Amino acid sequence: MSHPVAAANGVMQPLFESWTLDPWITAPLALAAGIYLRGWIRLHLQVPQRFGAGRLASFLGGLAAIAVALAAPLHALAAQLLQAHMVQHLLLMMVAPPLIWLGAPLLPMLHGMPRCLLHMSVGRLFASPLLTRSCRWLVHPVVVWVLFVGSTWAWHTPTLYGRALASEVWHYAQHTCFLITAFAFWWPVIQPWPSRRLVPPWAMVLYLTLADLQNTVLSAWLVFGERLIYPAYNTVPRLWEISALDDQAAAGAIMSVPGLIAFLLPVAWIVGQMLSPQRRTRPAWTGDRAVMLSSQHVMDDC
């Protein structure tokens, strides 16, 4: 009978030697990076004060966070350790989406796309009243808060979480759901162009505070649970001699502390803006005539 530590070491070696990324993930990320970079270069030459290096670094950093979350060994390690799975969720829900929105991606992506693609598909989408109305409804803070929190709790129930561990299809479905709802959740917080403020700033403080509160409750469920919530982790080789219950508590701590920072940092920024005597009453984008003319030119081409 093999020793559990030896078995764990036998698992660790292939995990850390397999720095691979599925082509179905690599290709879209590389394509998005290339299109954004092409558009960002054009806009940087026109309006460098709006599209500086910080926006480029933010967008590429968001794509990198997705790549790290879905690449081996982290993706493979998630089947062995709940805390590794939680790091994946943190990258997909609290790191990648806000970074990508801070890159103000819509206009660079439009400028970076081939003209033929703009004429054939993108222009028709932007011209659709149904799409416009649907997007406005989907990014309303109340709607996206419910979707984000509902998705988080649903996928952390033992039933759905167990399915995600047992099947790659369900695992990717879980991550896709997390990523989509997180993009929607962070939209009204970051307000990337052409976002419009739908609620007053104090409501966004409440929005983020309540999100942090539910995150704290969920993490406490993991930290202080006296039984194993996800039994599948009791059937795999234990790495570094960490018990399944200690792994569960560590995962809850990972969810709690970075989550607190992710939610409360924008709260501090919003409150600072509310208390600032020089706070602007209009979105920063509306005062930039060059950006507006550039966006109108692209839309006319569509």
Distance between the amino and carboxyl termini: 67 Å
Order of helices and strands: HHHHHHHHHHHHHH
- Total beta strands: 0
If you average the pLDDT, what whole number results? Answer: 82
Percent strand equals under 5%
Q: Give helix % range.
A: over 70%
Q: Specify the number of helices.
A: 14
Return the structural class.
mainly alpha
Uncertain regions spanning at least 5 consecutive residues: 1-11, 281-287
Q: How many distinct folded domains?
A: 1
Global morphology: globular
Largest sheet at a glance?
none
Radius of gyration: 21 Å
List the keywords.
globular; disordered N terminus; mainly alpha; 302 residues; single chain
Can you walk me through this structure?
The protein has 302 residues and is an all-alpha fold. The chain has one domain. The protein has 14 helices and no strands. It has helices at 4-17, 23-46, 53-70, 74-77, 82-102, 106-112, 115-126, 129-138, 141-155, 158-166, 168-190, 201-223, 244-275, 289-301. Helix 5 runs parallel beside helix 13 (244-275) and helix 10 (158-166) crosses helix 11. The longest helix is centred in the C-terminal third of the chain and has 32 residues, at 244-275. Residues 1-11 and 281-287 have low confidence and may be disordered.
Q: Could you provide a short overview of the structure?
A:
By secondary structure, the protein is mainly α.
Question: What are the SSEs and their pairings?
Answer:
Layout: H1 4-17, H2 23-46, H3 53-70, H4 74-77, H5 82-102, H6 106-112, H7 115-126, H8 129-138, H9 141-155, H10 158-166, H11 168-190, H12 201-223, H13 244-275, H14 289-301
Helix pairs in contact: 2-3, 2-6, 3-5, 5-11, 5-13, 9-11, 9-12, 10-11, 12-13
